[in-house]
Structures are given as C-alpha cells and as structure tokens.
C-alpha cells in the first residue's frame, strides 16, 4: 500500500488510521506496566517471594523478545493484519487466565502467554514503514509513540488506584476489556499494508545475511537496546525501590512510576517534529546524551546522601525523554537498512531490544535485596545508558567512513 493511499477510518480497504496504530501499541505498552504497583500485594496473595513475583516482568520480556523474532518474518510472509488479529485473540485468552490463576506458577505461565500482544507494537512500526519512506517513518513513529506514551504514563497510576480499591485482579480485568475493544477496532480498520511478500520462508531466510551483514543495522539495534535497557532496568527495580527504600504506598508509587512517560511524550514530540529536519542519527545521539546526563546527576545525589523519592523518580524523566528521541529514530534506522525486510527487521531489532531488557530487568531484581538502597539500580541504569552513547557514536563513525 503506497504512502499516497487515502486512509479511511474503519475501512479494511485502506491503510489503518493513526488511532488504530496508537491503540495497538498502547495495549502492548499497558500490559507491560499497569500492574507493577501491585507486585508487593501480588506477592502476598500468592505467598511468593518478591523476586519470584518480579519474574512476571522478566519472563514476560523474555518471551516478548523471542516472539518478535517470529512475528516479523510471519508478517512479511502472510501479512500484518492476520498476525495482529490472532495476537489480540490470544492476548485476551491469556489475560483471562491471569485473572483466574490459582497459583503463582499458573499465573506466570499465562503472564508469559500475554507477551503475544507484542505483535501490536512491532507491527505498528512495520505498517508505518510500509506506508512511508525512512525519514518520514521516523517522524510518524514519533507521533504514534507520543500518543502511545500517554498509556504508560497513566498505566501505573491507574494500576495503583485499582489495587488499593479492588485488589490486583482489577488491572488484568482492565487489560481484558481493552484487549477486546482493540480487537474489534483492528478488525474494522486494519487494512493490509504488506503488499510485497516473499514466496516462502526459505526464500525469506536466504535474505537474512543481507540484513544481518549490515553494521548499521546492528549499530541501530545496539543504540535502541542500550537506551531502552535503562528503562527496563527501572521496570525491574523501581517497584522495590519505591516500596522498600522510600516506603511509598501503591497509589503514590503508581503516580511517581509514570515519571518517565512524561519525558517520553516530550521526546516523541521532538522526534515527530524535528527528525526529518535534523536526521535520525543526530536525534539518537542527543537522546542518549540527555538520558546519560540525567542518570549521572541522580547517581551523584545518592552518592552525596541527598537522594529522595522525588529526586529519584524526577531524574528518571530524563531516561524517558532520551528514549522518546532515540527509539523512533533507531527503529526507523533498522527498518530502512533493508526496506523489503521491514517486518523481519522490526521483529529482530525488537527482540534484541526486549531480550536485553528482560535480562536487565532480572539483573535489577537480583541486585536489590532486603538491605539495598537505590544505588545498585542507578549504577546499572547509568552503565547501559553510557553504552547507548557509544553505540550511536559507532553508527555515526561508520556512516562517515562509508561516505568518505
């Protein structure tokens, strides 16, 4: 489907409306964080150690990463629409399973199955790349993720309030309702955009060396993985820091937890507004530097004994701002290295990013014990953010050598 195709809302004969793309990505984002303020109460409900309960984040991200490797090639072969619709159906079934799970083991099994919703996030980017060229894709992805960022901003707040009012199950009931609504919306509006498809998986896999041999592809993947790694470390460790280190209630933790989303919304706006003008590489570099500077300042406050709950969560806003500038542009870079493999690139790039996030989330949970303060989490976040700066510096250096 060409970029010039007229978009008609609630028509399966045209490219999907931006509202549908935001909804698809938004449900995927919400499922990742809406229940996080409830982790302590979920641990009590299942009589499970917090570190075991925290696997509901790490295992989810791990399965999420593995699925992305499969989702991209399948969508390149069979189209974006059927993959997204089936993913939504399975997500709704898995969410119901989370609600009725009698033990923590059953809950974790259904929680891992929920990760299938990643198809909405991955393929919303591939749909955009199907529709428009690289620089415009970065801009459009920025606007879509700016709208999507309202979801993780409000998600922990809503989850914390629901937990205090109705218990932890309420967050998953909300996910089930929203999953069904988005399923209906996608059925009515999501036109197929992958008009050029490989004839077989064998033919598709023969093209993999073309993608995997690109240093720019790996550079963009590394920049995205390390930049988002700081955020995923935060997802794994911040619930513990908020409740055990700073003594926050579930509702207050939910309110503070959304701090990165404020920065993310602003970063997405900057990407949407300026990526076409200044270029994706410079936008990525600026975002990684901003994130690193904020984390360095936060860590310094802790080292001098001046940290507080307010300062800890406020400085994580810089991580959100940096990610809002990095991720739309890094994703556009990945998808544009080999446009005919956009779905595969989206899936593989996303798998690298989320797989790294799963590992870092688990590491963050392991670093935080009964006597821990926030410093181990801050140092982990700062380290991965510094690596993101080095990754995009490599991409820029490679680009200059190729152009010379």
Descriptive report:
- By secondary structure, the chain is mainly α.
- The chain has a single domain, classed as Growth Hormone, Chain: A.
- Helices cover 81% and strands 0% of the residues.
- The chain has 19 helices and no strands.
- The radius of gyration is 20 Å and the shape is globular.
- It starts with 17 loop residues before the first helix and ends with a helix.
- The model is unreliable at 1-5 (pLDDT under 50).
Keywords:
404 residues; mainly alpha; Growth Hormone, Chain: A; 19 helices; globular
Instruction: Indicate the proportion of strand residues.
Output: under 5%
- On the 0 to 100 scale, the average pLDDT is 82
Order of helices and strands: HHHHHHHHHHHHHHHHHHH
Find the CATH superfamily.
MFS general substrate transporter like domains
> Which structural class best describes the helix and strand composition?
mainly alpha
- For the terminal residues, how far apart are their CA atoms? 36 Å
Taken from the alpha-carbon principal axes, the silhouette is globular
List the uncertain runs. 1-5
User: What's the helix count?
Assistant: 19
- For the secondary structure, the number of strands is 0
Number of domains: 1
CATH fold call:
Growth Hormone, Chain: A
Q: Major sheet, described briefly?
A: none
Q: Helix fraction?
A: over 70%
Backbone CA Rg: 20 Å
Q: Give the CATH class.
A: Mainly Alpha
- The CATH level-2 architecture is identified as Up-down Bundle
């Amino acid at each position: 489907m060409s970029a010039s195709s007229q978009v008609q809302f609630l028509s399966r004969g045209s490219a999907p409306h931006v509202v549908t793309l935001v909804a698809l990505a938004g449900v995927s984002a919400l499922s990742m964080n809406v229940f996080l303020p409830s982790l302590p109460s979920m641990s009590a409900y299942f009589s499970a150690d917090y570190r075991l309960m925290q696997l509901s984040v790490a295992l989810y991200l791990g399965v999420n990463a593995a699925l992305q490797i499969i989702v991209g090639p399948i969508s390149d072969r069979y189209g974006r629409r059927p993959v997204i619709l089936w993913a939504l159906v399975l997500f709704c079934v898995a969410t119901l399973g989370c609600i009725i799970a009698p033990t923590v083991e059953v809950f974790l099994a259904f929680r891992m199955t929920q990760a299938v919703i990643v198809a909405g996030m991955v393929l919303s980017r591939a749909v955009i790349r199907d529709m428009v060229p690289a620089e415009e894709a970065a801009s459009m992805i920025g606007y879509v993720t700016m709208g999507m960022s309202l979801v993780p901003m409000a998600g922990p707040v809503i989850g914390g309030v629901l937990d205090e009012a109705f218990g932890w199950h309420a967050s998953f009931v909300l996910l089930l309702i929203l999953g069904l609504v988005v399923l209906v919306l996608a059925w009515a509006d999501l036109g197929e955009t992958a008009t050029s498809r490989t004839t077989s998986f064998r033919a598709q896999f023969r093209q993999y060396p073309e993608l995997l041999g690109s240093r720019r592809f790996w550079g963009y993947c590394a920049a995205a993985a390390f930049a988002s790694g700081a955020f995923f470390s935060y997802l794994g460790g911040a619930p513990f820091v908020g409740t055990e280190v700073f003594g926050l209630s579930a509702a207050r933790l939910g309110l503070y937890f959304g701090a990165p989303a404020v920065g993310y919304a602003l970063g997405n706006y900057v990407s949407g507004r300026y990526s076409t003008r200044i270029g994706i590489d410079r936008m990525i570099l600026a975002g990684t530097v901003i994130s690193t500077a904020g984390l360095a300042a936060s860590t310094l406050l802790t080292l001098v004994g001046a940290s507080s709950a307010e300062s800890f969560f406020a400085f994580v806003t810089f991580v959100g701002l940096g990610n809002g500038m990095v991720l739309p542009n890094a994703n556009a870079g990945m998808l544009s290295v080999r446009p005919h493999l956009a779905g595969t690139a989206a899936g593989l790039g996303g798998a690298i990013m989320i797989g790294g996030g799963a590992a870092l989330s688990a590491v963050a949970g392991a670093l935080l014990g009964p006597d821990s303060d926030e410093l181990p989490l801050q140092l982990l976040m700062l380290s991965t953010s510094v690596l993101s700066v080095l990754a995009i510096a490599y991409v820029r250096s490679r680009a200059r050598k190729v152009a010379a």
